[in-house]
Queue: 2 jobs
Job 1
Amino acid sequence: MDANATTPVLPEVVEAMRPFWTEAFGNASSIHQPGQQARAAVERARESVAGMLGCRAAEVVFTSGGTESDNLALFGILAPGDHLVTSSMEHSAVLHAAHALAGRGIEVTFLPSSPEGVVEVSALESALRPNTKLVSVMLANNETGVIQPIRELADLTHAAGVLFHADAVQAAGKLALDVKALGCDLLSLSGHKMYAPQGVGALFVRRNVRLRPIFFGGNHERGRRAGTENVAGIVGLGKAAELAREWLANGEQQSLAALRDHLEQGIQTQVEEAGVNGAGAARVCNTSNMFFDHVEAEALVIALDLKGLAVSGGSACQSGATEPSHVLTAMGLSPARARASVRFSLNRMTSDDEVDCALALVPDAVARLRRLAPKNQRLAS
Ligand code: PLP
């Protein structure tokens, strides 16, 4: 139950990719037949990703993943003297890029969160300045699953003549994405959060948006991203985009949300002093961030892992860090409650039986850890 860390590659995706490592391998820049086959496969995948986003194929730039897409969006747009507005709940791929930009003469403003985990739209109005060049806010939060009011934020941003970037890494495959309806100028995707492999992603760049490359080399991706294309990975991303559209068109996200709700309700009826972070907000169908007061999330993650249930304490990239989650503290949770919070994230294949299994394991593990927790820690919580 850690699909927000990574998803399995779907069998159909593996099958689509397989020939491009073996009999149909080729460099998509080569002019001979194997090269042309690889090029055709990359361009078909570009159409598929564009189909998922409701954009033109030429507006899709393939990258190595979500981190690169986010970095390309920020570093490709901003220059010294510019101002960036982002939120305090972004993934480190945006947050740390913003800190790096701040060290290079770019001013940065971080928008606050409501207690439900939603970016304060009103704060954007006062944050915009004459030198604001880019606003970057994620579509769905990786820790809580909370969906941000992207359209509203983008409208305000555009009214000020500013570009809008959305990190949609945790929304892709869980929500229908349409870059026009969302009002995005740039939008990041990552393969391994949507049943394609790790190490491939894409950045939507609206036509006429001038993006400076951050890598220098060949003229790949129309000069926007140098480096030999990861043909098999790109084919996998294209196939995953098609499967995501089908899955959403069949209304499957409602069934997954029902399963997630069953998990949350089941835990809450069995465990006292537990609850859902961001429960009051709209959330993607698969994510549940729950607090268990007087329990250290890391200890709970380990206890459940020993029983065969993989969950996460905060985002995977922060596991091992002792700092409480920046997302949960931005929502106003106390450091103790943030440290007592665990993320369950289901994938498309999660079954009723697996949820029942989690419902049998979690209350037990929480009760055991609470019995072991020293009195002073319980008071501090
Ligand atoms: N953005 C968000 C919201 C994420 O959840 C992640 C990964 O967890 C990333 C960006 C980074 O993506 P990648 O792992 O493909 O670099």
Note: The chain has a mean pLDDT of 95.
Job 2
Amino acid sequence: MAAYETRHETDMRILIVEDERKTGDYLKQGLGEAGFVTDLARDGIDGVHRALAEDYDLVLLDVMLPGRDGWQVLRELRQAGRSMPVLFLTARDQVADRVKGLELGADDYLVKPFAFSELLARVRTLLRRGQAREPDRLHAADLELDLLRRRVVRAGRRIDLTAKEFALLELLLRRRGEVLPRSLIASQVWDMNFDSDTNVIDVAVRRLRAKIDDGFEHRLIRTVRGMGYVLEAPDASP
Ligand code: CA
């Protein structure tokens, strides 16, 4: 199973995009005092620029902004593949717009004026939810599988896999420590019912092993006779 990294709030980075000087300063100061690392952008263009240049855990996004408005900022972030939670700050007369924001992929919104305690509670909820998101990398010992880049590296060495081998390794990593019967592998990776006459799975596992295990001291994939295959790593991370 993939281990989620637990992080402290002091490591959490929040980008505030807010053009109203007083509100921006107030948010930056308040969140800073609450232990977050914050950056402040005062218009939409700078907001997009910063959000794409750095790794933020959350964006606080005002709707009415010079340069690009909050909707455009959000759209650009999502189009660029950024999935960090976004909390919209909207004025009371933009209530109808809230729906639009949520459709565009905002995670929550807060109507101005708001109590700081309320903002802090929403921020913490979103950050917790963000942490529980699907990781984009799976690990076992010195093997790393990058789900976004579709790349596998072991001990710093890049390993080329076919699409099926990648899917097979991903399944073994996700269910690490569990003995997976051939029938389960067949349905999950080949989308087919297992036919005991076919050796397609054994052949694929053998090829995968040759690529990721040969030449390494610790073999990760093990055959459990009469049952199936299991991926086990010598490190004991949960
Ligand atoms: Ca504004």
Note: Residues 2-132 form a domain with the Rossmann fold fold (CATH 3.40.50.2300).
